[in-house]
């Protein structure tokens, strides 16, 4: 008689979900209420109970890092989150991470982690536009897709990924593009990296910009990040906001300029003064698409750095991390070409 075939049990990947708050953990008085709810009201256990299907895909453990609306995200939670992810991913028995987050600053946290996580294992960040209590809440399917992605070998080495509305976006290029709709996360300039097909992640593209294990940034000894302010330019801009940034101890200024990062002539003197004091000034644009490129104006001669396709809020993060290494504008300019 033939020997019985040994049932080979394939071990499921181990995924840790770190919850930070947001609408995905939001609770409203009724299932038709889509706004005016309390963000960050439900704990990680309640979120995961809504999606028992994740346990077929992976061994899932949840941890609560914070429970806030992401409009109130801060350096302290960022550093706690990054350090915890680095600690978890250093363990051989952790295969991937999912972070639940509010959508308002999700693109910022994603890019920050993209630059400071020291592992090529998958890190996926998600949120929701409808509270967990809403009819057709988008959180549960985003959680299921995210666990599939974090458990997938294909997601390795691609930087931090955003898994919302059946699309995969990369942390560097993703933006929240709509205040209310569930298809708000797009990479308008450079496009999606892939899609979910029946929950299975399928990649079509990868970023060529450096991230995770290839960056020079290390948060392990940081307890705070340098202050960098964003100044939004407009008609009749007069440079007072730049003066205020300097007076309040900014180490860097991101100027969200008009057009291709243009600066109002009345605001120029305050920014030149800031640069003379050793504050690094980055020119970015308030226009949602297109790069901010070098300029023949006196701006480049004053040492202002141009942000490329990073929007002001992402340029701010790269400048914060750059300033942990140097305050030489030329070296920071090199970083803007690589990351
Ligand atoms: N959809 C959301 O998650 C918005 C919420 N204000 C947050 O960012 O926490």
Automatic annotation (TrEMBL):
Gene Ontology MF terms: asparaginase activity
Keywords: Hydrolase, Signal
UniProt key word Cell membrane: no
Domain Asparaginase/glutaminase C-terminal: 227-336
Record's keyword annotation contains DNA damage: no
Superkingdom, taxonomy of origin: Bacteria
GO biological process entries: asparagine metabolic process
Pfam families referenced in this protein's UniProt entry, alphabetically: Asparaginase (PF00710), Asparaginase_C (PF17763)
L-asparaginase N-terminal domain mapped to chain residues: 14-206
Catalytic residue list: 23 (o-isoaspartyl threonine intermediate), 23, 103
Residues binding substrate: 70, 103-104
Family: Belongs to the asparaginase 1 family.
Protein name: L-asparaginase
The species this protein was found in: Parasutterella excrementihominis YIT 11859
């Amino acid at each position: 008689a033939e020997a019985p075939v040994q049932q080979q049990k394939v071990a499921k990947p181990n995924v840790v979900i770190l919850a930070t708050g947001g609408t995905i953990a939001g609770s409203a008085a009724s299932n038709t209420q889509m706004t005016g709810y309390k963000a960050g009201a439900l704990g990680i256990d309640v979120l995961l109970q809504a999606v028992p299907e994740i346990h077929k895909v992976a061994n899932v453990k949840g941890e609560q890092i914070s429970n806030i609306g992401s409009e109130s995200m801060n350096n302290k939670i960022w550093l706690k989150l990054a350090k915890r992810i680095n600690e978890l991913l250093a363990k051989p028995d952790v295969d991937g991470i999912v972070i639940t987050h509010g959508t308002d600053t999700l693109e910022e946290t994603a890019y920050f982690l993209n630059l400071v996580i020291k592992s090529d294992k998958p890190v996926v960040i998600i949120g929701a536009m409808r509270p967990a209590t809403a009819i057709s809440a988008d959180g549960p399917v985003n959680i299921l897709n995210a666990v599939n992605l974090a458990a997938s070998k294909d997601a390795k080495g691609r930087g931090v990924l955003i898994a919302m509305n059946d699309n995969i976006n990369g942390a560097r290029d993703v933006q929240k593009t709509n205040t209310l709709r569930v298809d708000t996360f797009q990479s308008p300039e450079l496009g999606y990296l892939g899609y979910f097909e029946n929950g299975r992640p399928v990649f079509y593209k990868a970023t060529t910009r450096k991230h995770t294990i290839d960056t020079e940034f290390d948060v392990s000894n940081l307890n705070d990040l340098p202050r960098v302010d964003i100044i939004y330019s407009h008609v009749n801009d007069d440079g007072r906001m730049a003066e205020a940034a300097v007076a309040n101890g900014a180490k860097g200024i991101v100027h969200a300029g008009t057009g291709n990062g243009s600066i109002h002539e009345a605001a120029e003197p305050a920014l030149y003064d800031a640069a003379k004091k050793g504050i690094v000034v980055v020119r970015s644009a308030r226009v949602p698409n297109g790069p901010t490129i070098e300029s023949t104006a006196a701006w480049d001669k004053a040492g202002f750095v141009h942000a490329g396709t990073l929007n002001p809020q992402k340029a701010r993060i790269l400048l914060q991390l750059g300033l942990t290494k140097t305050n030489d504008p030329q070296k920071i300019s090199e970083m803007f070409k690589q990351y």
